[in-house]
Amino acid sequence: MTFKRSKIIVVDDNATNLTACKSILKPYYGVYPAQSALKMFELLEMIQPDLILLDVDMPQMNGYEAAELLKGSEDYRNIPIIFLTARRDEESEVRGLSLGAVDYIFKPFVSQPLLKRIETHLSLIECQNKLREQNQLIQKMLLLKTGQVSLLQNAVLEIVADLVEFRDNITGGHINRTQRLLRCMIDKLIEQGIYSDDIDSWSLEYVLPSAQLHDVGKIGISDTILNKPGKLTPEEFDIMKTHVQIGMDAISHMEQITDDENFFSHAKAFAGMHHEKWDGSGYPYGLSGLSIPLEGRLMALVDVYDALISPRPYKPALSIQQAYETIVKGRGTHFDPLLVDIFHSVSNQFGEIAGDTNKAPLVTSQPVMQTRPQAGPQAVPQARQQGLGQRMAVCI
């Protein structure tokens, strides 16, 4: 194990459970037991733990109440919490996760799974600490050469991208592929002079690097939800959707640190708008048509495409042809019609990026018309929408 000196507070009113948990963890971590939430707060005045294992059912103050106090405190809100509970109902788990817990561990404890899950979360904490260290380093280097700062920013972006994919282990390579897909789309837009007013106002050297942050908010989503091997419940999906705002908040904080409006304006557009839909049915703002920034409209398309061609625990990967057809069917509902037309013209490049270089060229039943869309969503024939909902539903 890597994290032998990490400090863990274990809170449980049952002395037997407390002793069992301590005996499992003590060979690897510094363990501080507490038989009540009040004792936990006394310990917190003396030590700064890396993790708190918090029992749910306790007298005087239960785990949920203690978690609310922890998350409401400036001093303790960043300490990760894992709930310990004998409850196995979905409602209790969702409540705990909504209070900011990173995981649930069920009693009675099983040694190896308990150790592995704790090790995973401590690994994430170390990654987050490294990211904070890099941000602090950037602040110092802002006083030096611009070129040096640019290199540091790229290093931080790589750390962030690695961290996101470490958390969301079902989407390996997603960030790299979406960057390459975006480049195809943007190069074709520039070549054909489409949306030139928007693109002319961009700082192009920042656009693709900033796109790496589009899913950074998933850092704040529990592993239980992020990597669930099945369909999310409505409550879990509501929690998942908060990754957009979490990402926006994180990027805004980085913007304040570096004072780089050009880079982070693109990053916020990618992170905050890539789940908006052309017809206004997306989230978080329900924007429609051209009111969605171009970065968001582009990322919406490439993000869904990559999700379609990638295997997930709850679905197999679609073929390149199926992914192509699904994107085209979303023209004017999910996606900007003009961007779908651009997608058609680069669809074989998309297939190559997806690793299907031997596939025959994609074909459509009718030519694609490249016409500039109006300010609102265009109507799409009913026949083109059939079957779209089922495929789109897999793309969170």
Global mean pLDDT: 81
Q: Beta-sheet strand percentage? A: 5-15%
As a whole number of angstroms, the C-alpha radius of gyration is 24 Å
Order of helices and strands: EHEHEHEHEHHHHHHHHHHHHHHH
> Helical amount among residues, as a percent range?
40-55%
Strand order of the largest sheet: 2-1-3-4-5
Largest sheet: 5 strands, parallel
Any idea what the CATH architecture of the largest domain is?
Orthogonal Bundle
Number of helices: 19
Coarse shape: elongated
Description:
The relative contact order is 0.08. It is built from 19 helices and 5 strands. 54% of the residues lie in helices and 6% in strands. The longest helix has 31 residues, at 111-141. The two termini are 34 Å apart. The chain has 396 residues and is of the alpha/beta class. Helix 12 runs antiparallel to helix 13 (261-273). The protein has a 5-stranded parallel sheet with strand order 2-1-3-4-5, sandwiched between helices. The protein has 2 domains: 7-109, Response regulator (Rossmann fold, 3-Layer(aba) Sandwich); 170-392, Hypothetical protein af1432, CATH 1.10.3210. It has helices spanning 15-25, 37-44, 63-71, 90-98, 111-141, 146-167, 174-192, 196-200, 204-211, 223-226, 234-241, 243-258, 261-273, 294-309, 320-329, 337-345, 347-353, 382-385, 388-392, and strands at 7-11, 30-34, 51-55, 81-85, 103-106.
